[in-house]
Specification:
mainly beta; 7 strands; elongated
């Protein structure tokens, strides 16, 4: 049995000049939040991927703890991105948000 012909099928790769990343640390928080990050490299056609992690303090290492922490939505605009998130825990937790901008 031979592998199927996959010509023309597969991931498309973007040159590294079109990729940007940033990490922002925050003071302890709990509940739902929304942050507006200004970044001149973002436009309405940008792809923005985000992650959120608990930290062991401001600028501390990131880790996966017991608290449910998640990104709710990400919406790029002209020169900014809006990232909404939730931290569902009994007390405020320090956290960091990383985002990756892809301009193709």
């Amino acid at each position: 049995m031979s592998a199927p012909n996959r010509s023309g099928v597969g991931p498309s790769f973007v040159s590294s000049y079109a990729l940007y990343t940033n990490r922002v640390f925050f003071y302890p928080y709990k509940g739902y939040g929304k942050y507006y990050f200004s970044d001149w490299r973002i436009n309405r056609n940008s792809k923005v991927l985000a992650s959120i992690s608990e930290t062991s303090g401001l600028r501390g290492p990131r880790f996966v703890g017991a608290a449910p922490i998640r990104i709710e939505s990400v919406a790029p605009g002209a020169g900014y991105v809006v990232i909404s998130f939730s931290i569902q825990w009994g007390s405020p937790l320090p956290y960091a948000i990383d985002y990756l901008i892809v301009n193709a």
